[in-house]
Amino acid sequence: MADLKEKIRDHKMVNLIKCILAGFVTRDALIPIVTNVMEAVKVSLTRQTGNLTCGVCSTPNVIDCPAKDICDRNKRKCSFHAKQKFQKCGKGVCQTVRDAISQLHRHENPSWCNTDATQWLTESWEVAKCFLPPQGYDDKDSADKTDINGILNLIINCRDFDNEIGDDLSKRENVCTIVREKMRSIRHASQTDVPDVIMHDVINALTNLLKDIRRPGNFPECIKAISKLNEIKQGDFDIKSESIDVQQDVLKELVSMNLEEKVEYLYHYFSKKIQIISTEIATLKDVSETKHARLTEDFKKDLKNFYIKFKNQLPIYPLPPHVKGTVGDLYVTPNVIRLDHGKNNREVQPHRHSFRKSYSADELHLSDVLLNHGNIVNEVYMIGEPGVGKTAFCVKTALAWASNHGPTDTDRFFQFETLGQFKFVFLVFLRDFSGRECDVDKMIYYHILANLPAKYTDQFLQRVLDEEVCLIILDGLDEWRHRDDSDCYCGAQTMIPRRRMRDKCLVLTTTRPWKMAFARMSSDIEIERRFEITGVKDPRDLAEKVIQCLNNKTGRNVLPDDFFNSVKDHNLTHCLNVPVLNMQLLYLWYTGGKLGSSVCDIYRNMIDMLFGQLRMRLSSGSDMEQMSDDANDKAQDGLLEKLQKLAFDTLIDHERESSIVFDQSVVDKALNSDEKKKALQVGILTQRSFLQPNAQHGSVLSFLHKTFQEFLAARHIATSVSQAYNVEKSIANLDGHMLRIQDFATFFEFMCGIDSEKAVAFSVSLMNFVSNDCEAKLNAIGTENSVQDLQNLHIIQQAQDLVLKGLTESKSNQHEAHLYLTHVTDIHVKNTQVWRELVKRNETRIVSVYLQEHHDKLTIDVFRSVFSSSNDTLVYVTLKERRTEIDLSRCRHLKYLCIAGEKEPAITTASTGKMVTCSLERVTEGTEKMMFAALSNNSECLQNLHVHQCKHTNDLVNMLPELKNLKRLKICHVDFTKEPIERLSGTLTYVYFELVIINVVTLDRLTKLYEGSSHSVTFKLKECTVVPHQKFVAFKEKISSSNKYNVIKDGYKMQARNLHLDDVFDGMDEMYVFKYSLNPDTKLNTDDRKCTTQYDRTVSSV
User: Fold this and answer.
1) Which of 645, 739, 779, 882 is deepest in the core (most CB within 10 A)?
2) From CA 607, how far away is CA 743, in angstroms rounded?
3) What are the start-end ranges of the H helices in 573-696?
4) Could you tell me the superkingdom of the organism this chain comes from (predicted)?
5) Each residue of 806-815: pLDDT tens digit?
6) Helices 793-812 and 741-754 sit at what angle, rounded to 10 degrees?
7) How far apart are CA 1080 and CA 1061, in angstroms?
8) How far is residue 535's CA from residue 385's CA, in Å, rounded to a whole number?
9) Is residue 61 predicted with pLDDT exceeding 80?
């Protein structure tokens, strides 16, 4: 009861009532205006018909089939015209009226489903209903029964109101659209609390609309309404002062807003009689809820039927797009791996080149993707390279939900129990909305509900999404770009489509890796759960299904084993895990084509086969003039040349999402109509129609697959780009576009197989990109984390793998490209022989080395040769877990050195003259002695030093003051009680001690070194032992009371609460971080912010 009284006193709830009432007041004032205008429209229509009337033709008789937004184009029989067909009016009246109404509509798209054509010339409101929204207004037979949203849409859509409103109604934003959006936001609000500022904003917008009436003197209702709105806006306004009828209308509106139990609080703002009436309203709501429940079940049934009927097919690449097989006949279980916390786990996944199934006990299922400990999550991202089956995965998921039965043995990945937890599954192909729509809810409406019966309105969809457990599948984030619209509400966040926060909705998004990399750079995007489709679990299963499908279409009896034997003979087994390559190989073999011995051969032969099939189809037609083989070849070459340029131009499009799916205008610039038709007939280009948000039908084009586009683009550079300048320009375009190596991989592989000389130029550019990335990481390195983790090993591995893959493809095409490899690692090398040859060839230009202990003498010898040959180029070196001797003393450009986990008798010497970052973690005594001496003698450029464990503390203490330009220092696991630090470099800005034993006298002396310094210095102690305890407490009190220091964090101070030390360790965030600054109000820098997020503990010894 106390809670109820508190709610009643809340004026924010009164504000909601005020907004609803203000809407009614404004609507009532506009009714005389719209009634007069529509009566004038009816008179005008009658005049245009020569005062003739019909009264016989129904709306379906008058409207041609198919009509936009009414007729079911995807069904054989149109439900709108099922009982009454289109026919010409016997008196020639109705089509005239229809055309006149269309011309009156601002968008020439009247809502024919609302209206009864038999009454157009007798009832003016039947004409008005043509301008109302298409859902929810067919039963409104007068202005009095139409809500403010309908009235506003009438004014906006009917051109005759241009003379009644002062503002320009043709603008996207005008006085009416502003009111409409503000009233919608109130109408669809899920909260009863409306702040004063929003209430004032809504009522001011309504007032502005009424003040914009051109002839207010003719409509005294507007003058009275403006006064009434000012009255409502006042703080002491009471709804009880209104008539019972008005109160009842407002309360009904509130009940219809689905505020559920919150409405009971609103009852108490109304008079006693209304509180009694509210019981009747609640009964009406119960009836409405029953109707909604039935509608929901109907929707679920229709949605499942929609998927089964229209989404149950998959293309068989590279057959023409119209040749497809059912999902059940073709789909095979995907190989899905988890990518947690930004780590890529693909290295630990075995590469399966076997033809047999390999299910493991810990294999992932759909439940692992969509659920977290049995609970539905909100966001999941599924990434995958081109052709691995992302779209097929989405379609299969929707169909598995719609199928209403448990999985078979072949598709047990899609667990029925998991999908059964979702009341609805919505599948949206983002490519259909690229550059056109950014709101996910609208995409669902146009993609799905627009193809279902009209009873499923946008309002119904909103309620379903708000209340039901839903899975929203967004396929192809990389093929979507934000619409070009300055009026969009997305603001700066344009990397992903806009979605509303709903606890019961899970959004599953698929994308290629490059888009995910960019999305993760945005601080506004939370990406917690990521998975990757790496291909199919069982390549044999896919091949068997495709062969069976082809056998059914051709009547042949081809055996899968024959195909696999042929693939083995051509050394192409590695292509089978990628579905698109698997099917291309299979279809080439099935039709008697050449398989070749390389990936380029596959695509080259596929394109030749597609053109050959078209020639065969056309030559059998009687309407085609026969051409000679030479003429055919010449026409094919000419078209291919244009397609290659189109592929390249679109691939380097700076709107990266437009590079895969592009508008017709792009193709029209590259191909004439005949060439475009032929490209579509061949199947290299595909065209897809879609429904745009403005209800117009449009179409976009794309290549058969992105890999075909990349192959053709590579051929364009090989055949058309000759001058060195143009090659460099092409590289610059691609480098600026493909900022992630993964997205560059397939194109580069094709380039290596087609033109080795130009592939070398691309490899140089690729290596330069990695070098730039390493330099950027070097300049950003601090001491918060272990230094060797910041060299970005992952990108070096990717680049090396890419070059090795390109070299293999080059050799497979009988020419070896002398590719550049300047960044080398021995981790996860698959073909060590090819790798050694490649490194040996590039040993005089190596820039970075990441060497992990290798017991293979040949590999160690390769690195030793690199170190002796790359004296003028080597910049970054990481050496881990070694027992061997390494001499880097002649590498005079070395900027980065990390040595970790050395074991005797290993010893490392290095040149330190240009060194910027040095990390010595658990090194041998010999290495420690050599490196400390080198740094003491020559360290002009050194800015970052990390020492983890130390054999001779005295040598470290003597070295530290000699590092004249050091900025960041991290020391771990060192005891300074016997050999205290006397001095540090005056240039330090960050001092980090971890697991260090130090005397408080030393700590106090170090801090005093920087008092009076012109720059700030941050000190961090993590899990350190500071002795003695009492003096450390006094030291911290001095720091806290000083105006020269900011205490950023003191987790240890909580220990004073009579807690056992173990309890402190278990439950406290113990760490001590303080910062010296001339200005105690200085904002935290990046390093400081890192400090406050770590789980650390610092203790004092008694």
Assistant:
1) 882
2) 23
3) 579-590, 599-619, 629-651, 664-670, 673-682
4) Eukaryota
5) 998 998 888 8
6) 20
7) 33
8) 9
9) yes
